[in-house]
Amino acid sequence: MVQAFFILLFFQFLGTALQDGFHLSVPGPVIGMFMLAACLIGRKQLFRAGHIKATGSAFSAEQEAIPPDLARVSRSLIGALGLLFVPAGAGIAGQFTLLRANVWPVCVALVGSTLLGLVVTALVMQAMTRGHAPAENLPDNGGQVL
User: Fold this and answer.
1) C-alpha closest to that of 66 among 80, 87, 45, 50
2) Residue 27: helix, strand or coil by DSSP?
3) Count of CB atoms situated within 10 Å of the CB of 34
């Protein structure tokens, strides 16, 4: 469990180091998250190709591509994700006078970006699912994304 948490912190640190080193505008933890996802996808491909052998557990090779401890720690952190927004909310509340002075631009930006996000998400989903089986015919993989 500690090793899995260390893996998450390592990729966050690696992403932050790349962001600082190359002066990227993308946040370091986001870069680290994509790097972790790429590593897990690569590990899954190696399992499929047979380059890495399953350790004899009851899991299939695809399920074992994501270490069980890493999945458990990740699910625990996702369960507590709402708590991570409390400091941001407190920071916004601390800037209430600035928000009051700019209420209309903030509202227009929030509504506009929400609508734009919905439209772009719908268009991407439509483009990605074109030619694929309807959702009710897809096999259930137990919520496993990678």
Assistant:
1) 45
2) coil
3) 13
Contact yes or no for 46/36 (Cβ under 8 A): no
pLDDT higher than 60, residue 113? yes
Tokens describing residue 30: 């986001």
Q: What is the pLDDT of residues 8-23, one digit of tens each?
A: 999 999 999 999 999 9
Does the pTM surpass 0.70? The reply is no
DSSP summary character for residue 84 = G
DSSP string, 92-142: HHHTHHHHHHTHHHHHHHHHHHHHHHHHHHHHHHHHHHTTSPPGGGSPP-T
36 sits in which H/E element: helix 28-49
The alpha carbon of 143 is separated from its chain's Cα centroid by a whole number of angstroms, namely 14
Residue 58 has a pLDDT of 46
Q: What is the mean pLDDT of residues 137-145?
A: 64
Q: What is the DSSP letter of 59?
A: S
